[in-house]
Give the backbone structure.
Amino acid sequence: MSKQTKIIGIKLENLLFHPENPNKMSKTNFAKLKLHIKESHNYEPIIVRKHPAREGFFEILNGHHRCEALKQLGESSADCVVWNVNDDEARILLTTLNRLGGKDELKMKMQIIKKLSQKYNAKDLSRLLPDAKATIEKLKNITKSMADFKVNRKAFLNSLVFFLDDEQLKIVQSAIDKAMPAKGTKAEKSAAALTLIANAWTSKK
């Protein structure tokens, strides 16, 4: 797998989506991505390879949503990096580049939110960041001293990803709905419900 790191401009009409791309973005997050590009004019270069079957065209490996956002914003070209990869390497990249990621260290995330809050209110930040307004408000208003977060015991905002078939999803969703608290965002209530269910199961052991 050889890679070219030089950023080049490629016409959007010559960028084709990889037909096997498994990554999908919610309408809310896509709107935030589009707004970010519109207001800042900045985005990560799109990673592509020369199209294996169409001369003069390129196939997107990472950046499908950025490409679509640029199209909707009326742009004619995109900043790209061309990687020389075969079909199998392309498939590996499709399932890693679009999925691998870290998680936010709570202390650092709080500091960023507090600094941004000096200029933006929570509603404006929720339009620009992946976080919901309620989450931003909570992070902004945490009063715990930064010294309380030990370097060797970092607190993280954790995500939990797993896959269910239709029957499993029906069962899990039913359990979450029954344990769902009344207050909070949908994500916060789901997290609280799962924690309650897990605690109930653990207490039986």
In short: The two ends are 50 Å apart (CA to CA).
